[in-house]
Amino acid sequence: LLDEKFRMVDGLQSSAMAKRQGCEPSVFKRGIWNYIHCMFGIRYDDYDYAEVNQLLERMLKVYIKTVTCYPEKTNSEMFDRFWKQFKHSEKV
């Protein structure tokens, strides 16, 4: 199930968030993916987790953790406040 979701996200074409962080979209997506896996106790020996802290600012990590672990706490107001400069389609 997680692999299926990752393939779907990996296929998204928008790279605005990655450009904002100054990296390649694939690197940015991999950082998010590994951060989410880490929250569920899945860690990869060949991945440098320091990259997660370089790629993902604190508020993004808080948002990702809330959406991932506590989706019932996510509401439209939180979604709208987060990264206002991006379109709805870029935040999904």
Automatic annotation (TrEMBL):
It comes from the Eukaryota. This is SESN3 protein. GO terms for biological process: cellular response to L-leucine; cellular response to leucine starvation; negative regulation of TORC1 signaling; positive regulation of macroautophagy; regulation of response to reactive oxygen species. GO terms for molecular function: L-leucine binding; oxidoreductase activity, acting on peroxide as acceptor. One of its GO terms (cellular component) is nucleus. InterPro entries: Sestrin. It comes from Urocynchramus pylzowi.
